[in-house]
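Q: Hi! First time doing this. I have a protein sequence and I read that you can turn it into a structure. Is that right? Here it is:
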Amino acid sequence: MASVNPSARPFLDGAVLSRLSRMQLQVATPMLGSVTGMHRSATRGASVEFAEYRKYVQGDDPKHIDWQVYARSDRFYIKEFEADTNLRAYVVLDASGSMLFDSGNGSRFDYARRLACHLAYMLVQQGDAVGLHCCGEHENLDLPARQAPSHLHTLFDLVEQVEPKGESTLVDALHNLAERVQRRAVVLVMTDAFVPADELMDALQHLVFCRHEVSLFQIMDPQELEFDFNRPVRFVDLEGGADLVADPSVMLQTYLEGLENHMTALRDGCRKFQIDYRNARMDGDFETLLTSFLLEHAGKKAAAGGQRK
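A: Yes, that's right. Below is the predicted 3D structure, encoded as structure tokens:
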């Protein structure tokens, strides 16, 4: 078993991982896994968490009969429990050209890689399986989900080698993933989301319809959000190559309104379909983003558990 040394990987921060070591990514959606783990399963099994009663049928193990219920009703009932299992997670990295945008503090794609590597490391450490899908016009890498620590080396190698380029193929990639992954999974999408909002939401809804639990990280550079240019600038389309020289002051209001409408459509759509939406500003605290993500998922699992009692 080959362990991963965080200090040897450019997109891992050992200090952050150490501070988050007591936290885990938990899910509210019942999972289907092949081994015992920490997540609620969609099937019944042996666990400490009681689920419900059902009538005894021939072939059931008598040890699960509730004799107190029998004493009151003179009928045999079986106690069922929630089976705990491992989860399968798929990290989807947008490798289109626009992910290369860099206003001076590193590219958006480097931020996405950092986020992907930290979550993948934590998932494997807690016994879950992680897969990777990188989608771009000239990149379409697919790594099946596995839980072995040695698998992380392969995943990190691929993440470090990917070179974003060309137009986005994110929407098609998400539809394909929804069709291809049969077992329920957690899908972590890391993108700038610069595709039509209705098309992206349709793809995310497809994943939810297939009973996957989806989180969308929209990674944004602060310069895109504030559009703080003070002189004429040459704007270059990183996906198509076209360029335009323009006075930012003339287009400021139109740009900000368009951006806000796009982000509002994404937020509202995610809320409607119960998709976890994260606006990941690159100038924000990275550890705070991870911490809030993990805490909110733990809270959702706890709330789902309370509703079942």
